[in-house]
Amino acid sequence: MMLRSCYRPLERCFGRVAGGGGGDGLMWHADLKQHASGDYSIAVVQANSYLEDQSQVLTSSSATYVGVYDGHGGPEASRFVNKHLFPYMNKFATEHGGLSADVIRKAFNATEEEFCHLVKRSLPWKPQIASAGSCCLVGAISNDVLYVANLGDSRVVLGRGVDEDKKKKVVAERLSTDHNVAVEEVRKEVQALHPDDSHIVVYTRGVWRIKGIIQASVYDGNTIVKVGLGVTFIPFQESYALPPGLPFHAIK
């Protein structure tokens, strides 16, 4: 399956949009482009002077992948995910006869395992890489099914066009669940994954934190927490059948 990739810095694909400062390079966008299930567009605004986030869109004749990676503690984790996650999804989809929730889960696991190996190799000369992490939000459309996978607290929102009182309206529908231990369901999930660790989730400084360190069950990185302290996370996943011709917009 041949995939076309567009990723931040998005001007590589779409050109630069002039911002309030007259083209300061902090905004990128793409007008409507075709993909297997219709049209898509993308817009990005860089909010911080030091960019730790990544995003990408990959399209083919049969599938469309969208990824948003909210990095922190450095850009290494989000850049790694941006480079490796979708190739793994493509590889496993080919091996298993198509995209599925299991394929996405395998791609998450393979990418994280490879990043942890990179961190261990890099520690002697770049110890700060162990604190780099990234939330990971993926949406994928294949065979009229929308797959959503999330680790962290980025969000997918479906904007559905409806007719109400003879007026056109857009109704917002949240499709993803925050993978954050502030959410009781996530907190119980993390505790169930680590039944022998009574301090896996700790209430400290006014909030619930994993090992008293982080709130979001971040996907890739934070090797200090995941490897050094033995923490395991499983991505939240959902799938939705898309009726033919259904107009919708998914945003972060």
UniProtKB/TrEMBL annotation:
Its EC number is 3.1.3.16. Keywords: Hydrolase, Magnesium, Manganese, Metal-binding, Protein phosphatase. Pfam families: PP2C. InterPro entries: PP2C (IPR015655), PP2C_BS (IPR000222), PPM-type-like_dom_sf (IPR036457), PPM-type_phosphatase-like_dom (IPR001932). It is an enzyme of class 3 (hydrolase). Its cofactor is Mn(2+); Mg(2+). Gene3D superfamilies: PPM-type phosphatase domain. Signal peptide: none annotated. This is protein-serine/threonine phosphatase. It comes from Populus alba x Populus x berolinensis.
